[in-house]
Write a structure and sequence with these properties.
single chain; 725 residues; five-stranded parallel β-sheet; 18 helices; 32% helix; 23% strand; elongated
Length: 725
């Protein structure tokens, strides 16, 4: 083969000598007609691109030497069109060259190299991940005019014809391309089709609509909560971007009912505490409601409960079943369905299916979303179809891991171009596994953390819908197909290799689930005695329920934060209402003890029950005190009837509870020094009284005078005296 240096090609083009572009082989002739034009320089925002650290010179066309300034060039693609090029149709690649150096970049050259690869999905992934210059033929080239200053970029446009005829052995597929400038390399693909010799794949989509893992969204009101809801739902939020990106796309929404609080049974999520939060949540709910019927929504269990973590966990069934049951009302209001399970880890096992059937009661479980890598392939090495059915007859929708990850990468314009082109190549390779088989389908999902660039994602959907080997379908159609398909066993390895929904481990463990159940009971219990009990219960019950959500898999530290706040809210009550410790001297056989209960909360408490128990039989509790009402930051004294049976020190155990028996107060040991009086006291007192009487009599007798103590005239009768005289 005659090797024609690119520099000579450019020189010949400048001299209007098209013969210099002609190669002696048929393949080269088909690819030889190319036009290279440089777009006007423009400043473009930079995104990450793959950079090569080495240069490969083994190509069928020689390359110009690399100038020192070229080492700082960074290539970024802005477009590859059309999506599938036909014979005779030009392929146009546009992009920019950015100067990341500190000195000007003079007239950099951009080349398009056509490589070779097998028509397999593994080959597509391998080509896309390579970062070195490719070995192959330079099929397009341009040299930018002028100089690119540091920190700026210039655009380029390369148009090539004959691309669809490069692979004579296949009538459709994708050509691997490498766009290079110096040591900056971007690997991509170009779809092509000469003849339609296949049965198209049916494709359907599902995109979750869920909240971010922000602990400030729930709990106490205030500026932090207002700011969190603003960040979660305003026009620039991730949720808003998902709605913008999918509003016109044929996707099924998988909805967390936390985004539609007014559709939940009242007053489960009536805890909006600020005007901004209320306005944002109302506007988001109205938008979802208005567009829902176009997207046949699946309503997830309330809070998007982490089914993959809780299924089979002891103690979790009651709580999660309540969250699952609430979805039916929301689904009815939106014209959707609430009988599809979507575990975050994408796994499927027969045991997990049994657990899911126990959670989904009315309506009963009608299907499950699973990763295709969690299911066995029909034939060795082939990708399972989207419509599957378990051995017990449960319809399964198996999402394609590779294609789903590409949808999740549409987070920027630059990344979206690369993911779109790889999607074209990967879907063509998937089709090539069984090109003549009709009825095949593929299911693509976005991750729960999906954060798209709306405009770029809309272009992604538009491009994919234009692919001739993909036919639009719906999740309802594929579920109906799954009900008719043959049963399948779970794969030996049931954890997906590249989960499209999450890459994190579950936060919920059996111990945390048990603690969460206890926390919910405590929240509801302490709410019974607080004057603001309704508000307290709504706020903190809702916050505790959110801890079951799947979203915390990507933010375990945030889970700890919210869990700590819920625990602190309940602990505030259980420590603020308490019995004052002290020592009481009880000097009686029976009587009343006075015990003081304090309330350090800023709200009154009522219906508080104090239970007193003696730790030993020296003191008998005759009756318990009545229920208490204590004002804010106040104290109350209660009387407890007791009987002393023996002398000694008796610790009293005190417990404060709500009407349902929830322990809400901090009990304290009250020490009682018991000194019973007994019968001997009365004998002693009687003896003392008798002695006092006797002493009184003796004293009286001793004070009376005798006859010998009287004088001669003392007491004499006057008449007798006078007679003597």
């Amino acid at each position: 083969m005659v090797r024609v240096p690119v520099c000579r090609v450019l020189a010949a083009a400048a001299l209007v000598l098209p013969a210099a572009l002609t190669a002696p082989t048929a393949t080269a002739t088909a690819a030889a007609s190319l036009t290279a034009t440089a777009a006007a320089p423009s400043a473009v925002a930079s995104t990450s691109v793959a950079k090569a650290t080495t240069t490969t010179a083994a190509t069928t066309a020689e390359r110009p030497s690399v100038a020192a300034a070229d080492a700082r060039a960074v290539v970024q693609l802005t477009g590859v069109s059309p999506a599938v090029v036909a014979p005779g149709q030009p392929l146009v690649i546009t992009g920019t060259v950015r100067n990341d150096g500190t000195t000007p970049l003079a007239r950099p050259t951009v080349r398009v190299v056509a490589g070779s690869m097998d028509n397999t999905r593994e080959a597509v992934r391998t080509w896309a991940t390579e970062t070195t210059p490719a070995q192959g033929e330079v099929i397009g080239s341009t040299r930018l005019k002028g100089t690119i200053a540091p920190g700026t970029a210039a655009g380029f446009r390369i148009s090539m014809t004959g691309v669809a005829s490069r692979r004579a052995e296949a009538t459709y597929g994708a050509i691997p391309l490498s766009v290079e400038s110096a040591d900056s390399v971007v690997r991509t693909f170009a779809g092509y089709q000469r003849i339609k010799q296949y049965q198209p794949l049916a494709i359907s989509w599902a995109v979750p609509l869920t909240l971010d893992p922000d602990p400030n969204l729930f709990g106490a009101g205030g500026t932090e909560r207002e700011a969190a809801w603003t960040s979660a739902l305003d026009g620039s939020s991730r949720v808003a971007r998902v709605l913008d990106a999918t509003q016109d796309a044929p996707v099924t929404w998988a909805l967390d009912p936390s985004l539609t609080p007014a559709l939940l049974p009242d007053p489960i999520d009536a805890g909006a505490t600020g005007t901004q939060e209320l306005a944002l949540r109302t506007a988001t709910e109205e938008r979802i409601t208005a567009q829902a019927r176009r997207h046949t929504p699946w309503v997830l269990p309330d809070t998007d409960a982490d089914l993959g973590a809780v299924v089979g966990q002891a103690g979790a069934t009651g709580l999660v079943r309540d969250l699952v049951d609430r979805s039916a009302d929301v689904a009815e209001a939106l014209g959707g369905r609430a009988d599809i399970a979507w575990p975050a880890d994408g796994t499927y096992t027969a045991r997990a299916e049994t657990g899911l059937r126990q959670l989904f009661r009315v309506p009963s479980l009608a299907g499950q979303v699973a990763s295709s890598s969690a299911l066995p392939s029909g034939l060795t090495g082939l990708t399972p179809g989207a419509a599957q059915r378990s051995t017990t007859g449960l319809p399964l929708l198996a999402y394609d891991d590779s294609l789903s990850s590409l949808l999740g990468r549409t987070t920027s314009a630059q990344e979206s171009v690369l993911s779109t082109q790889q999607f074209i190549a990967d879907s063509a390779a998937l089709l090539g596994e069984l090109p003549g088989t009709s009825g095949r389908s593929v299911f693509v999902v976005a991750p729960r953390s999906f954060n798209p660039d709306p405009e770029a994602t809309r272009r992604f959907f538009d491009t994919v819908q234009s692919l001739p080997w993909l036919t639009p379908s719906t999740t309802s159609t594929q579920l109906a197909e799954a009900r008719r398909t043959a049963t399948t066993q779970a794969a030996p390895v049931t954890r997906p290799t590249a989960p499209a929904t999450t890459g994190s481990k579950p936060v919920l463990t059996s111990s945390r689930i048990a603690a969460l159940e206890q926390t919910l009971r405590t929240v509801r219990g302490v709410a019974q005695i607080r004057d603001d009990g309704d508000e307290f219960a709504r706020t903190w019950t809702r916050a505790a329920e959110q801890l079951v959500s799947t979203r915390w898999r990507s933010a375990p530290t945030a889970w700890n934060t919210l869990s700590g706040r819920v625990g602190a809210a309940t602990k505030q009550t259980t420590t603020a209402v308490k019995v004052s410790a002290g020592t009481i001297n009880f000097l009686a056989d029976s009587g009343r003890l006075q015990i003081t209960v304090t309330n350090d909360l800023d709200v009154p408490v009522e219906d508080v029950k104090l239970t007193v128990e003696a730790s030993n039989p020296r003191l008998q509790i005759d009756s318990q005190p009545s229920v208490l009402r204590i004002g804010p930051r106040s104290r109350a004294t209660v009387n407890v009837s007791v009987t002393a049976l023996a002398a000694g020190l008796v610790p009293l155990r005190t417990t404060l509870t709500t009407p349902d028996g929830t322990v809400v107060g901090q009990g304290a040991d009250v020490q009682v020094r018991v000194t019973p009086t007994g019968n001997w006291v009365y004998l002693v007192l009687g003896g003392v009284a008798a002695l006092v009487i006797v002493l009184g009599i003796v004293r009286t007798v001793r004070r009376r005078p005798s006859r010998t103590d009287r004088g001669p005239d003392r007491g004499a009768d006057p008449q007798t005296v006078e007679a003597r005289g």
